[in-house]
Design a protein that fits this description.
Blueprint lengths: L2 E4 L2 E6 L2 E3 L26 E3 L8 E5 L1 H13 L3 E5 L2 E5 L2 E2 L4 E5 L3 E5 L7 E2 L2 E2 L3 E4 L2 E7 L2 E3 L8 E2 L5 H9 L1 E4 L5 E7 L9 H5 L6 E4 L2 E6 L2 E3 L6 E4 L2 E6 L2 E3 L16 E6 L2 E3 L5 E3 L4 H6 L3 E7 L2 E2 L4 E5 L7 E12 L3 E6 L8 E22 L27 E18 L8 E17 L5 E9 L3
Parallel strand pairs: 4-6, 5-7, 6-9, 7-10, 8-13, 9-14, 10-15, 13-19, 14-20, 15-21, 19-22, 20-23, 21-24, 23-25, 24-26, 25-28, 26-29, 27-30, 28-31, 29-31, 30-32, 31-33, 32-33, 33-34, 34-35, 35-36
Antiparallel strand pairs: 1-2, 2-3, 11-12, 16-18, 17-18
């Protein structure tokens, strides 16, 4: 029997199954019935990346080595691919059924800054991806680094003079106004589009799994993504446990963990410190989003979010809906907002059975709790984006129950912006908000029902 100790959690491979439990303890005393996610089944067969010629010197390109190793495991019916200590530079990695990518302590998978090696049919591929796969996992104590500085635009207003000059030494392009730097016309690597605006649109995610079943991410660090860090899309039975997700506070679109239209998801024990939303649930936009259905049966517990635009977020797109979401026992320290519900016409859907409790917040830059229904998505370099003027797919934030929130130092305690048609039947109970500027800013008092909610400030 082979045993691995990963991030303080003992893994045992028994009867060919990767056990990460016991997760059943998280499913006690839930306000709504919810199924515990099924875990991946991984054969005991194990290989090391170095068995296939992997070189962790921080220079050698290991893209073909990863491909060969995963292909060999696939032919054996799956197993564990162990990445030892070292810096393994690579292009995109595609996982197959019943494979565990395991990073030992001091192992780093570093995406190559040569962006051409990430392109397929003119589109950049995620650093690690899987599509229509089952029983896949990424585990261990190592780091997966997206080399995001070679992809992202940078706003001059968000960096110091020293940081700005560091970017300029890479080459790149500064806009005529001097307000933005793009990694276009770099000294070291060629462009992958004709203009910096088009190249900006090519940025992709660090880890993205699409239409997969039985997924586990545990213990590893995901950092410095070109865009979002982990995006499971239309996946079922997903466990995200004990990750560290981090990037610069000013990284454009640097979301942490973003499940989209997934079912049976457990998000626990993670630490998130990123440039955009921390833990964010998405549900597609418009008719296509509605067709793919809701985020459903999602449990988010015992996580800590430091910098982020929002600690826990729904939106902006959720036309497929949000059903049976439980968020409890989480800490947000230093986020722009705490609980953030954002959407707009053409992006909205319906929330049902949303239960949020025992949230602890401090040093919140803007609102502790905010509902906004005219959210405008503004890509870097654009300041003219507007929410759609339409009555289609309106947000319907309702059936949301928020209890026992303690917040120290938010600029505004609670904000709700919209109409009763889009924000209604929402309760806040037994909460305390210490604000620095304004207790609440609510367009219609009937939007939110407040019971035993205290607002305090400096006397």
């Amino acid at each position: 029997m082979r045993k691995l100790c990963l991030s303080g959690v003992l893994f045992s491979l028994l009867a060919g199954t990767l056990w990460a439990g016991p997760y059943e303890k998280y499913y006690q005393n839930l306000p709504v019935p919810m199924n515990e996610p099924a875990l991946p089944s991984i054969p005991e067969y194990t290989v090391r990346l170095t068995d296939f010629g992997g070189v962790g010197d921080g220079v050698t390109d290991n893209t073909e080595v990863f491909t060969k190793a995963i292909s060999a495991l696939n032919k054996k019916g799956g197993g564990h691919l162990v990445v030892p200590a070292g810096i393994f530079v690579t292009g995109p990695i595609s996982l197959k059924d019943r494979i565990d990518l395991h990073l030992e302590r001091n192992a780093m998978i570093l995406l190559t800054p040569d962006r051409e090696k990430h392109l397929k049919n003119g589109k950049a591929q995620p650093g690690i991806s899987a599509s229509k796969r089952s029983d896949i996992s990424i585990t261990g104590e190592g780091i997966i680094d997206g080399n995001g500085e070679w992809w992202r635009g940078v706003k001059r207003s968000k960096v110091s003079d020293t940081e700005w000059n560091t970017y300029k030494r890479m080459g790149g392009t500064v806009t005529p106004k001097g307000d933005l730097w793009y990694p276009f016309d770099l000294k070291a690597f060629p462009n992958i589009a004709d203009t910096y605006e088009d190249q900006e649109k090519i940025r992709t995610h660090l880890v993205r799994f699409t239409d997969c079943e039985r997924v586990l991410l545990q213990g590893v660090t995901l950092q410095n993504s070109p865009k979002f860090h982990f995006v499971p899309q239309r996946c079922q039975d997903v466990v995200i446990d004990g990750l560290t997700v981090r990037c610069m506070w000013n990284a454009q679109n640097g979301d942490g963990i973003d499940p989209s239209q997934c079912r049976n998801v457990l998000i626990v024990n993670n630490t998130v410190d990123v440039g955009d939303d921390g833990i964010c649930l998405k549900g597609g936009a418009g008719a296509a989003g509605a067709k793919n259905g809701p985020c459903e049966n999602i449990l988010i517990q015992d996580n800590t979010v430091f910098h982020a635009h929002g600690g826990f977020v729904i939106g902006s797109e959720f036309s497929g809906g949000m059903v049976n979401i439980v968020v409890r026992n989480n800490t947000f320290s230093g986020t722009d907002t705490g609980l953030r519900f954002k959407s707009a016409p053409e992006r909205g859907g319906k929330t049902q059975n949303i239960w949020i409790s025992d949230i602890y917040m401090s040093d919140i830059q803007d609102e502790a709790v905010v509902f906004e229904t005219s959210y405008a998505d503004r890509p870097v370099g654009r300041d003219d984006a507007m929410a759609a003027e339409t009555e289609n797919f309106l947000p319907n934030f309702q059936d949301i129950h928020i209890e026992r929130v303690t917040c120290r130092d938010a600029r505004v305690g609670v904000k709700a912006s919209g109409t009763l048609q889009m924000i209604h039947d929402i309760t806040l109970k037994d909460c305390l908000f210490f604000y620095t500027e304004e207790a609440s800013r609510i367009d219609d008092p009937e939007m939110l029902q407040l019971e035993n909610v205290r607002f305090e400030t400096y006397r």
